[in-house]
Amino acid sequence: MERNLAHIALFAALIAALGLIPKFTLAFGVPITAQSMGVMLCGTILGAKRGAVAVLLFLALVALGLPLLAGGRGGLGAFATPSVGFLIGWPIAAFVTGWIVERWNAPILPVATSAAIIGGVFTMYVFGILGMAYMLDKTIPAATMLSLSFIPGDLVKAIATGLITAALARTRPASILSRG
């Protein structure tokens, strides 16, 4: 139990640390950050349940006002922006990513990369697009078009997630809790 709590807290801190990498905000108000890669890593390394809980812990700390989002944003106001759908989708993305890694019995590199693309990109975009459409008062097709600019960077983060997870699996196999 203590080990699970430590891993959950560590990965919530990892998401926060990835927010220190400078963000780039697009013209319509949604930032491009490295934090979504932390969400993907929560799933590939911790697994579905622990990964989702780590992201929920991170979001709870943000909601309480800690400036943990990229650019030092925090508080309930962070959930009233065009990126709200992405934030809501983060724990679900971590869960889906982890669920795939837990169940797909194949070499970790293609599994983790595919899981990060399916869970950490596709699943996250479903929520992100809906949130952008609502917050920007756009149609879903219009919000989808706005979101297309994120996809190349998120695919790079998904590939990096697969590589990091595979490297960790090689050097410290017991640390990949999604496969335990």
Polypeptide structure, described:
The protein has 180 residues and is mainly α. The protein has a single domain (2-174), classed as Arp2/3 complex 21 kDa subunit ARPC3, CATH 1.10.1760.20. The protein is built from seven helices and two strands. A hairpin with a 5-residue loop joins strand 1 and strand 2 (31-32). Helix 1 runs antiparallel to helix 2, helix 2 (35-46) packs antiparallel against helix 3 (48-63) and helix 2 packs parallel to helix 7. InterPro entries: BioY (IPR003784). One of its GO terms (cellular component) is plasma membrane.
List the helices and strands and how they pair.
Blueprint: H1 2-18, E1 24-25, E2 31-32, H2 35-46, H3 48-63, H4 84-103, H5 108-136, H6 140-147, H7 151-171
Antiparallel strand pairs: 1-2
Helix pairs in contact: 1-2, 1-3, 2-3, 2-4, 2-5, 2-7, 3-4, 4-5, 5-6, 5-7
Briefly, what CATH class?
Answer: Mainly Alpha
* Largest sheet: number of strands, sense, barrel closure: 2 strands, antiparallel
How many structural units, i.e. domains?
1
- Rg is 15 Å
Poorly predicted ranges: none
Helix content: 55-70%
- SSE series: HEEHHHHHH
Sheet with most strands: strand arrangement: 1-2
Structural category: mainly alpha
Number of strands: 2
Q: What is the averaged pLDDT score?
A: 93
